[in-house]
Design goal:
The protein contains 5 helices and 3 strands, in the order ββαααααβ. By secondary structure, the chain is mainly alpha-helical.
Length: 168
């Protein structure tokens, strides 16, 4: 996973089938990595909700709960993206205190506002939208600097994912 300012996510897809990984096991070393995955997942869920793929959102919320939220102490799967955000923030704060580790908020500050800035509803996009062919409609990038990065895979995962890097 590669996260760029915007927020833009680049997933590399290979010919091999994807093997489901075990749930995260939060510790001091991987809280920032978990945070990156949570916000990437929130962004993905929002894109599916915006396209009215509500079954995918429901399935995604359950998977998110199993792989990230439940290991952080959230016992009940969220029923909405907003509920997932509220519960995750609460669990993240608890984990930060427990592990005496602060998680940078740059990715959250980029992803969360972006969910309300998708075309065609955002006012600053309307003039650009009028000049675009329908096939070229896309979210405008945010101008939010991202300073956090994760270059090493988490030690507590059996099959670590490719490293995620945030760049500006």
């Amino acid at each position: 996973m590669l996260l760029l300012a915007g927020p833009v996510n680049v997933d590399l897809i290979f010919a091999e089938p994807h093997v489901d990984e075990p749930p995260w096991q939060p510790d001091a070393a991987n809280l920032s990595a978990i945070d990156a995955y949570v916000w990437d997942w929130i962004r993905w869920l929002h894109s599916k909700q915006s396209a009215h793929h509500l079954r995918l959102v429901a399935v995604g919320l359950r998977k998110m709960h199993t792989h990230m939220l439940e290991p952080m102490g959230i016992s009940v799967a969220p029923r909405s993206i907003d509920e997932a955000i509220v519960e995750y923030r609460r669990a993240r704060s608890t984990a930060e205190r427990r592990f005496d580790r602060a998680v940078p908020r740059a990715l959250e500050y980029a992803v969360h506002p972006a969910m309300s800035r998708t075309l065609p509803d955002h006012p600053e996009c309307r003039s650009r939208l009028a000049r675009l062919r329908p096939a070229n409609r896309f979210p405008l990038p945010l101008r939010v600097p991202l300073v956090a990065s994760r270059t090493a895979p988490p030690a507590s995962r059996r099959h670590p994912p490719p490293s995620a890097t945030l760049t500006t």
